[in-house]
Amino acid sequence: MLIRWLTGPYFTSVPTGAVDPPTWMKAVFITWQILCYPVIAIFIYLWVIKPWHRNRTIPLDGMLFIAFMFMSIQDSCSNFFGYWYTVNSHLINMGSFVNDIPGWMGFGRSGAQVPWAIFFHPFEYVAGTFAFCFIGSGLMELFPDTIQPEAAHADPGRVPCFDIVIEGLFQTLGFYTMAGGKISFFPDTYEKFPVIETFFIATLNISIVALRYFKNDKGETLVDRGLNSMVISDGKKQVVRLLALIGAIQTIFLFCYNIPIAAYMGSNPGVWPNRRYVASVLHRRPVRCRH
What we know:
Blueprint: H1 2-7, H2 23-55, H3 60-71, E1 86-87, H4 121-142, H5 158-172, E2 176-177, E3 184-185, E4 193-194, H6 195-213, H7 234-266
Antiparallel strand pairs: 1-2, 3-4
């Protein structure tokens, strides 16, 4: 599918609309996109390359850093049946591969689809998912009574609150909108936030936090246990572990979020707000448009 995208008609930039976002929003976009890959390179050096040169192993967080980057490939797959979410096309993009997915039902043509922003999505998923990992692990250390030793059970009630803060920040800064959501906070604004989003984000992130947090005495997670007993080189062990974690994260993302959200939200999207853009963070007067 990725090869078909790169060699086909969908590999073209999605143009912006007629109305420019505010200057401060453009400044945020430019700053993020300039810093995206230099910051990624720094973390890969600190968490992947440096540990490998030092002791021929890569720590779990280094592996997860790479796995979280691959999460971004699934970003708009919840639009499988119809569009309820879109990314701001002022971000540099070359369309997306999603319309090459067999059976894809969401609208799409060359230059008219939800874009995958090459200088936004890879680090967005790393930053957002690690935020949940660090907060979740910290809470489990702080409140050990909420965890059962035999199972990955932590209080899920806190996660929706974090999601509203973290995703609310990304939306307020203008990176994307969930304007086709249903039963939402702020229903007439760019920052429209479907209530059901918090439940499935909680399901997704609690699963990822549990995968990272619960390890055996050898430091192995559920998906790479037994790796140290394999008679292969250290380099091959790291590759196998990375592939196992990428597969686990992709599977969690698919079944804990994209499939249920596509079925609930994408199959029958809510009404998109009749407004053109948000003029500023503090002043949000809707601009009504004719249909």
